[in-house]
Amino acid sequence: MKKLFKIVLTLGLVLTLFTACAQKPAAQEPAAQEPSETKEFPAIAKEDIKVGVIHIGNPADGSGYTYAHDQGIVGMQEAIGLEDSQIIRKNNVNDSDPTATETAILECIEEGCNIIFGTSWGYMDTMEALAAEYPDVIFSHGSGYKSNDANFNNYFGRIYQARYLTGIAAGLKTESNLIGYVAAMGQDNSEVTGGLDAFALGVYSVNPDAKVYVKVTNSWFSPEEETNAAKALLGEGCDVIAQHCDTPNPQLEAEKAGAFGIGYNSDMSKDAPKATLTSAVWNWAAYYTWAVENAVNGTWTGENYYGGMKEGLIAISPINESIVADGTIEAIESAEKSMLDGSFNVFDGVIETNDGSTVGEEGKTLDDATITGGINWYFKTVTVK
C-alpha cells in the first residue's frame, strides 16, 4: 500500500462514502486471507487503463451504498488522473440476477475495461467464472470470500471499528435507553451481525443500561422495508435509530419523529441534519486508488484487501456537535486513539452473548476469520424485534 494516497483520519474530515453485500456463509475465509501463490500482471500504461464498475443502485441517488462506492471511484479517478472516458459505469445491476450481472461485465470487457470492480456480494460467482474465462482482465469483488490469487480478488474492511465509535455517540445520547438498529440481514450473516455487535459494544462501553433492538429487512436495498423497520423501532420507544442498510430512510424517519440517528455508508447528516449524530462511513477511494495504481505500476498480484482506519478506508463522519450529548467527542477520540495505537480492539476478551453463552478469551481478540465469517451471535444487550 506504499502507493496509497494519504487520507487524514480526523473527526472533522468529510468522508462521503459502504457495504451492501449479501449473506455470507459462516464457514468461509475472510477477505484478509493471504494468497498462497500470486501472479504479477504487466504494467498497464495510465492512458490505456480502463476501469469498469458494476453498481447495484444508481449513484445519482446521492446517498447510501452505491453513492459511497461511486465517490470512491471518483476519488480514484482524481488521484490517478484518469479521463472520464476511462471510467465505465453499469448502474442498477441486480446482484441476484446472474444473467444481468454477466451482461454488464461483458459489456465492460467489450468496451475495453482491463480492471472491473463488482461492488455487491451477489456478483461474486459470476465474476469468478468470468475471471477464469478472461485471465488478462482484473476482476475485483467487494466483500465476499472467493479469489484466485491471480486476476480475481476480494476487498472489504474493518467497518466494525467505525460501528463501535458510533455506538458511543448513540449510548450517550439515548434517554429512553432503547436504541433501534435497522439490519439488512439476520444473525447468520457475519458482516451485518458483527457490525451490530460492535455498535452494541460501543453503546455498552458508555451506557451499560441501554438495550439495542434490531429489526431485520432481509434485503440489502429495500427503501420501503427500511422505512417500515425504522417506524416499528420508533414505535417500540427507541429514541436513536442506527442502520446497516442502503438508504437514508431510517434517518429520515428518526428526524420526522423527533428522534436521533446513526447513518451508514455516507454522511447522512445531509439527509437528516436534525437527527443524524454521525455516520459510519467508507472511503472506498483508498482501495480503488491502491488497486488501480497497482495495475498501472505492474504491481498487481491478486492479493485480497482488508483495510481499516489506519489505511484510511474506514472512519466516521463529522460529529454533529449541535445535537450530540456532552462528552461524546472526547469519548470517541479516546476510543479511536486506542484503536489506532493497537492498545484496544473491538472484540477483545470474553464477550457475553444474548443467549447466556460467551465467546472469546481473556487477553486475546477475535481474529479476522472469526470476525468476517464466524460472528453469528448477538451481544448480550441486543434483542430481535
TrEMBL record:
Residues 56-338 form the ABC transporter substrate-binding protein PnrA-like domain. Keywords: Signal. The keyword Signal applies. It holds the Pfam family Bmp. Residues 1-22 form the signal peptide. InterPro entries: ABC-Purine-Binding, PnrA-like. PANTHER family: ABC TRANSPORTER SUBSTRATE-BINDING PROTEIN. This is Basic membrane protein A. The lineage of its organism: Bacteria, Bacillati, Bacillota, Tissierellia, Sedimentibacter.
